[in-house]
Amino acid sequence: MTGTAADRPSYALAAELDRLLGDPADPDGPFGFARTVAHEEAGELPPGAVDLVRSWGFARYLVPEAFGGGLRNLEQLVLLTRPLARRNLTVSVMFGSALLGVNPVWLWGDEEQRARVAEGMLGGALACFAVSEPDHGSDLGTNTTRAVADGEGYRLTGEKWPVGNATRGRFVTVYAAVENAGSSLLLLDKEQADPAEFENHPFVRTVGLRGHDLSGIVLKGTRVPADALLGRPGAGLTAVLTVLQITRTAIGALSLGTMDSVLRIALRHARERVLYGEEIYRIPVIRRHLVRAHLDLLVAECTTLPVARSLSLVPSRLSLWSSVVKYLVPTLGEEVVQECGRVLGARGYLREGVAGGAFQKLQRDHAIASIFEGTTHVNLHAIASQLPAVARVADRPQPGGEEVLRRLFDRSEEAPVWEPSGRALRLTNAAEDEITRGFEPAAARAREIAARDLPSGVGGALAKVLDELGSRRAAFYTRLAAQAPDAATTEAQDTAVEHCLHHAAASCLYTWLHGGGAERATVRGAGWLVLVLQRLLQRLDPTAELDESLLPWLEELMFARLDGPEHFSLDAVLAAARD
C-alpha cells in the first residue's frame, strides 16, 4: 500500500482497495464469487481473503488518526467498506463488529486505554460489543451482567449472547451493572484476563454470514482493573444508545455494496439470457425491475454519504439521521435484491450457476442489515419520537443551515477529520434537522436553475416533481405539527417511513445543488435528479411515473459500467453527464 490516509483522497483509497480485491467473476481470486460460495457451504471464510484485506491495511481505518491509525472520518470508512461488501458481506461484518467494539474506547477511553487498543487493532486484533443477553436481547433496561468491586478492580459475572466477534475478539466492551452506580461500559482485554474466568459459546448457525463469529461469552467472575471503566460509571445506557449512531450509519455501506453486486448480476443475466428470440432485458417488466433498482441505489448513496459526513461536521444530528439511514438504506437494499431476484427467476434460487451461485448468498447475508444495530421497528420508533419537534419548525430556516448543507453535500472537498468525543453525540436532535428544513429554499433555487439553464423538457419535469413533493411535504409536516401520533403506534411508524422519504428527496436535491458542477445544467446532469425524485414520489403516490424520455441514457450508462471497474454510483452518473 502506498501513501497515507492524510495525503490520499478517500475515493482514491477506495478505488485502490477495489482494484486489489479483484474481479468477483474471477474463479481463482480470494474474493471471487465462486470460491466464496464454495467455502461458505462449509461455514468458512475463503482462504486468504481476510489476510489480503489486512495486508492492504484495512485495520488502520478502524483506528482514528488521533490515536495513530488512518481513519480520518466516517465517510472514508463507508467508502472503503462498500467495495469489500460487494464481494463478501461476511468479511465486512467482521470488521464492522470490530469497529462497534472499539468505538466506545475512542469516544470515552482514557489515554492508556486508547493507546493499548489502538496498538492491538493495528496489529490485527479484533473487538466486540457485548451488550445483548440471551433472555433480554436488546432490552437495554434489563441488564443482568454484574460488575462487583473487588479490591482495586471489578469482577464481571454474566452472559452476553449473541455477539459478533465474541470468540475471535481480543477486546470486549461489556455492558454491565456496576455495584452502586448502575449500567456502565467496561473494557475487557482477554490477553490480560485469566482464561479460566471466561469461556466462549460455539458459533451460532445462521441463515447468512456463514463463517462469521457470531457467538457469546460467559463471564465467570472475570477480573478487570479499576481503570477498565469507559467513561462515567452509570452512563452505560446513554453510551450504548449514542455509540450505535455511528455504526447504524456505517451499515449503509453494506447495503450499497450488496445493491451493486445484485444489480450487476441481474443486468448481466438480462443481457445474456435469450427468450422468445431476444434478450430478456427487452421484456418491459424486466427493464422496469432493473431501472428501479439502479435508481434506488442512487437514492441510497445520496442518503448515506452526507450522514456519514455529519459525524465530523454536526455529530449532534446523528440521533435522528442515523436512524433514517439505518431504516431506509437496508430497506431499499432488500427491495433491490427482490427486484433483481425477479429478473433471475429460478436461477436466483440456485446455489450454483449464475455468478457462481452468489446471488442467494448475497440475499441471505444482506438480511442482517435490517436487524442488527436496532431493528427496522426500533429505528422507526426512534424517528417517530423526534418527529413532533421537527414538524413544528419544518418551515423555519435554521440559522447556518445553508453552510451546513453545503459542507455535507459538497463532494469536491474531503470531510473534516473526526475528533472522537462522546460529549458531541446526543440522544435527540432537539429539532435540528437542516436536511428536511432546507427543502423549500433548495427547491426554489432548483426551479430557478431549471427555468434559466435547462431545456424545457427536463426543466419542466424537474419543476413538476419538486412541486409535487413540496406539496406533500408541506401537508405532512403541517399535520404532524398539529397532532402527532404516539411513537409506539403503527400510525407513528408509517409517519416515520414518510419522513425518511422526504429526507431522501431533500438529500438527492442537495447532492445535485452542491455535489455537481457544470453538468448540473445539462439534460443528463439534471435527468438523474428528475428520475430519483420521481422514484421517491412513486413511493408516496403509486400512480406516479418515471419520465421515459430520460431513461435511454440511464440504461446506456448501466450497461457501459457493467463490465468495468466502476461502481454503479452517482460518481459514474456525473462522469457520464460530463462526457
UniProtKB/TrEMBL annotation:
Residues 128-220 form the Acyl-CoA oxidase/dehydrogenase middle domain. CDD domains: ACAD. Residues 39-124 form the Acyl-CoA dehydrogenase/oxidase N-terminal domain. Belongs to the acyl-CoA dehydrogenase family. Residues 234-386 form the Acyl-CoA dehydrogenase/oxidase C-terminal domain. It comes from the Bacteria. Keywords: FAD, Flavoprotein, Oxidoreductase. Pfam families: Acyl-CoA_dh_1 (PF00441), Acyl-CoA_dh_M (PF02770), Acyl-CoA_dh_N (PF02771). SUPFAM superfamilies: Acyl-CoA dehydrogenase C-terminal domain-like, Acyl-CoA dehydrogenase NM domain-like. Its cofactor is FAD. This is Acyl-CoA dehydrogenase. It comes from Streptomyces sanyensis. The lineage of its organism: Bacteria, Bacillati, Actinomycetota, Actinomycetes, Kitasatosporales.
